[in-house]
Amino acid sequence: MADTWVIVGLGNPGPRYEATRHNIGQMVVDELAARRSEAFRAHKANARVAETWLRPGGAKLVLAKPNSFMNVSGGPAAGLARFYDVAPERVVVVHDELDIPYDTVKLKTGGGHGGHNGVRDVAKALGTPEFPRVRVGIGRPVGRQDPADWVLDPFGATERQTLPILIGDAADAVEMLIEEGLVAAQQRFHAPRA
């Protein structure tokens, strides 16, 4: 399938984690599905998927939410890449990023995992770190809170006011990455806000 992309939203399964910072990748994939009125269904690659199109006549999108926990996201991501015959450069991983300020979206292809165990596991399972990433900034905790606890907390009241905008921006970034390429998406989303 020449123009198929797999978009994997990283997160943890179950209601306990749904609204946590670590699950923003899945929130973004939910937004992409909602924009197209698509529902998720079970897939044998241990994920829930929604198959759709970027736009009529455009690229096919396989929106995916692994059923596994974050640290073992690679199996579902690699299984979907094999099932849909998609090369790693067409597997877009959407994930939370501690080292980017809240309300910021950054894109890159390849590089290290920055201590993100979900990204690390996807790179290991795909056999390469050379896959595009949409990194959604959640910022670091203020004070002495352990970052491992921070990512598993729900967004704060102030963050929740702008969370829909952040999710929308990240979904826009995924669409632009696929439609116009990495550089164009970086130029738009890495520029300071007016």
UniProtKB/TrEMBL annotation:
One of the record's GO molecular function terms: peptidyl-tRNA hydrolase activity
PROSITE patterns in alphabetical order: PEPT_TRNA_HYDROL_1, PEPT_TRNA_HYDROL_2
Site (Discriminates between blocked and unblocked aminoacyl-tRNA): 12
Database matches in CDD domains: PTH
EC number: 3.1.1.29
Pfam families per the UniProt record, alphabetical: Pept_tRNA_hydro (PF01195)
Broad EC category: hydrolase
Alphabetic keyword roster: Cytoplasm, Hydrolase, RNA-binding, tRNA-binding
Amino-acid positions noted as binding tRNA in the UniProt annotation, renumbered to this chain: 17, 69, 71, 117
Oligomer status and interactors: Monomer.
Function: Catalyzes the release of premature peptidyl moieties from peptidyl-tRNA molecules trapped in stalled 50S ribosomal subunits, and thus maintains levels of free tRNAs and 50S ribosomes. Hydrolyzes ribosome-free peptidyl-tRNAs (with 1 or more amino acids incorporated), which drop off the ribosome during protein synthesis, or as a result of ribosome stalling.
Name of the protein in question: Peptidyl-tRNA hydrolase
